Amino acid sequence: MASILDQYEEEFTRTSTGKPAVRSTAQDIGLPGYVDARLEDETPIFSRVKLNYKCYNNTSVCWNNILVLALSTNCLVRVEVETQQATEIELPSPVTDRVHQIFLDPTGKHLLISLGSQENYYVSLGTSARKPKNIAKLKGHLIDSVGWNWQNANEKTTGAILLGTNKGLIFETELTQFDDSRFFQGNVDLYLKQLFKLFNLGRERAEPVTGLQFDRMPCSDLSVYRYYILVTTPGRLYQFIGTVSTSADPPMFTPLFQQYESGADHPQFLELPGNFGYSDLHLFFPKFRQPALTFAWLTGPGIYYGNIDVTGSAGPNSVMSSSKLIPYPKDIDEQKVHPIGMALTEFHMLVLYSDRTRAICSLNEQMILDDVIPDRFGRMLGIRKDPIRGTIWAFSSQVVFFYKVCRESRDVWQMYLEKGDFEVAKKYCQDSRFNLEKVLIKQAEHLFEIGKYEESAAMYAQTQNSFEEVALKFIKLSNKEPLQTFIIEKLSSLRPQDKTQMTMLVTWIVELFLNTLGRLKEQGQDETYEYESTQEKFRKFMASMRIKECITLNRTVIYDLISSHGDIEDLVFFAHLMKDYERVINHHFHHENYRGALECLIKQPDIELYYKFSPVLMQHLPRETVDAWIRVGKQLDPKKLIPALVQYDHLRNIDQGNEAIRYLETCIQKFENRDSAIHNYLLALYAKFQPDHLMTYLQLQGEDPDEICYDVKYALRLCTECNHHRACVHVYSLMGLYEEAVDMALTVDVELAKQQANKPAEDDLELRKKLWLRIARHVVEEEKDIKRAMEFLHECDLLKIEDVLPFFPDFVTIDHFKDAIVSSLQEYNQHIESLKIEMEEATQSAEEIRREIQSFRNKYSLVKAEDKCSVCTYPLMSRAFYLFPCGHKFHMDCLIAEVLPTLPTSKKSQVESLQRKLAEMEGSPAHNRAPGGPEKAAKDMDVQTKLHDLVSSECIFCGDFMIRCIDKQFVEEEKWSIIVSEWE
Fold this sequence. Notes:
- By secondary structure, this protein is an alpha+beta fold.
- The chain contains 36 helices and 30 strands.
- The strands form 8 sheets. A 4-stranded antiparallel beta sheet has the order 1-28-27-26, with helices on one face.
- It is elongated, with a radius of gyration of 60 Å.
């Protein structure tokens, strides 16, 4: 016998290669417009595949890809669909017994078996043994339904579960596996508690519990869990709702049922007439452990179907909403055939009959499948759906069928569309642009019919309908806002490469906005909220990134369009948007709105516009303009602003010159500008408008020619023209024209002249004396102040009484300068006495020197053979050497090498020249052969004497040479890097 997967793959390959479904899409057909063309028949939603497994009775279940079949031999077969592994499980029951029901939990790990003999077994499919364990406490009970715990994640235990029997009893228990190797074996059921009896509700006889489902509900109280429990009998559907404490001991559902058992509350139930002795209850879960969405109850008159609503909107005692009874499809021969079972999917219910399977859509109650089972396969026994994997299994006494689900939601959109639920319809046709187009068009038409033109326009824009057709439809309306909305939405759907279409639509939208604004303005509503709101929308539209890129390339058209409507405000806004600040400023100038022009200039980033428009602004708003310049700071070039600075009328507006001075002062003091043009112009403004600041500026510039930023000659000419004599004196002094400075200072102040007379260099005594004589002559001849002229003799040491006397007039008496003559004679006497003392000291020094020379003639020192040079430490007698009175000894070449680097350049060249002469004389052959004569010896001695005088005038260790070398580095700079690298 082939495996299940082999049979499935074989059948699936055969069916899939038979007639492949090809569904046309918008991408295949092209845009705009669609053609609803199906080239071949579509694959049905439900297709049956036969698997060659036999089972017995209504005993087959599949959860989590675990298929369990009950065979006619009272043997269970567990099949793992994915791995193709099949395992047989033998039941410890007599051959005459039969399996009543089998129940598999959602994880596929726990199996509950109920036998016709009212024996019940538990099999833990998570263990390798998989040996059935008898549930002793359930003996005598026939289990018809099990409510599994969907929140349980433990593979070793089922958690708290509910059991429904054929006698209307509801039990709570928990089943667990135990180890057979233990000596004392535990019970499979940890506990068993009867919770409720359905026949206590007034029924004369007990009815079997055919369905049990429970799940958790949301609850704001974190200390309790809230549950709903659905219980069905052949003719009734009960609802039990209550809370369970999170810390409650098992059985956990006892408090929930006690409120109904004690009569405090009655369970809400629904009773349908005409039951046929059994029923089937199913919940649909979108995903494992997610809340259930819908329920379906298969009963006598039909399928009771609805939504699970745990929000409380259905009432405090109900979780079912939007419920309806779906009748069973009628047969052609009008014979009433009872269904056997049912499987619930998201949108369909598969109802199983003895000879066929019918699929009913839960949305429109239409039958979409009538799958007749051939007689050779036997009578159908049951149908099961795996809630985890979504697979559907049907079985007869001969075979097992697998129903493959293919795109179940393919036609759901159309059903919701017919109901008018457009949003849900769009949700289920996202994979088909063609179907989505139909929904959008239908919704747009519906909105247009009910007068919601704005929403209709937005919806039409999402469709591929003819643009012209839709536009004409909205043009007929008196209100143009829907048309505007349609064009804007259509514009947003264009691709970046559709530049022509985008330009046309943008231009149209601008025209519509301008028409609306113009109409409101004509009606006098330009200050209303409607006008402001429309204008704000218009400006937001223009400022959006995509629209801005489009209108940037067509700005001339937009300018002309706005200008034709006379909308100055929006024209200015558009110019701002295009960063066409030059146009905006020119507009303000044209309307003499200089303050608005300045505000626009400040907000824009183009520096060149400052140079262009500042001359005009400086004439009307000098202070504000200068403030704007200062805020911009160093980005501005002050030289380019000079045309603006010179554009002033000092007679009409005196502030212009002062503001120009303020800006130039800021450039110099704060921005440290050293441009001569700026300084020269500031100097000119000082000379014309603020002469009291002129000298302050000149003094701040200092007297160092290299640090002065202005042109000195220009400053002299400017100050001369403006008759600023003090400034002229300062400039003359800077130029070194001290005579002119003194002459100019004498026209101002004698004290100023005296300051200028002291400025020449101290060694230039002749010039200083000449300047002081000019001052003295001016005082004597011009001011006739003899006494003050005499005071100059004390202020300047260079002046004598005989220098000043020629300036005195003939009528001056000796009383005016008697003291000066006496003082001068006393100074001469003191000078003669000091000269005598100096001569005596010189005579004594000469005598002392002669005595020392005489003593040195008889002084000698001993040189030993082992003496060494004080520099190179080699034997001293090896070559020519020097011996100093202090006892230090040096080789001649060593001494020269030490002294030579410290000598001035002139003496250094003399030493090198003398060394070359000595080398030439000693190395010449003629010198060695020729007998020595008095002239030759004298010449050699003269060269050596000069060399000795230059290099051996003092000991390098004891004389001034060592003092001069006190700041010499121990390591020379050229050797520093080498030594550092060695230390590293």
